TrEMBL record:
Family that this chain belongs to: Belongs to the small Tim family.
One annotated GO biological process: protein transport
UniProt protein name: Mitochondrial import inner membrane translocase subunit
Bilayer disposition of the protein: Peripheral membrane protein
Comment block on domains: The twin CX3C motif contains 4 conserved Cys residues that form 2 disulfide bonds in the mitochondrial intermembrane space.
Cross-referenced Gene3D superfamilies: Mitochondrial import inner membrane translocase subunit tim13 like domains
Species per Swiss-Prot/TrEMBL record: Heligmosomoides polygyrus
Tim10-like domain location: 42-104
Keyword Lipoprotein attached: no
Length: 124
């Protein structure tokens, strides 16, 4: 798995839990001390990393199994194994590319919005 330091945004914005929404209220975050901001950011990172990993594993399993396992049996054929490996590799490459692009856009939005004490983001 490849999660860099800003991948938590993806899960945070995808989650609909009220607690996550409250954690991302920018006006409230700006009023916190830098130490409290870091605590909130760390909590969001942890929750988002867990959500990202769960989503990734679920999606990867469903898509690659449906594509590659055409006739279930007691063992996988060599072609099934090869298909699964290629599918997982392509899926992970795509996932990482999409995540990196999203993170870049979110960081650009944060930077341009001047969030966190005059534009210096605590997220870097």
């Amino acid at each position: 798995l490849s999660f860099n330091k800003k991948s938590y945004f993806f899960a945070a914005f995808c989650c609909s839990r009220r607690g996550m929404e409250q954690l991302l209220d920018m006006e409230t975050l700006k009023q916190l001390t830098p130490e409290k901001q870091q605590q909130v950011i760390q909590a969001v990172k942890q929750q988002a990393a867990i959500a990202n990993a769960q989503n990734l594993i679920t999606d990867l399993s469903e898509k690659c199994t449906q594509k590659c396992i055409t006739s279930p049996g007691s063992s996988l054929s060599s072609s099934d194994k090869q298909c699964l490996q290629r599918c997982m590799d392509r899926f992970m490459d795509s996932w990482n590319l999409v995540s990196q692009t999203l993170q870049k856009r979110l960081q650009e939005e944060l930077t341009s919005s001047g969030a966190f004490h005059g534009g210096s983001s605590s997220f870097s």
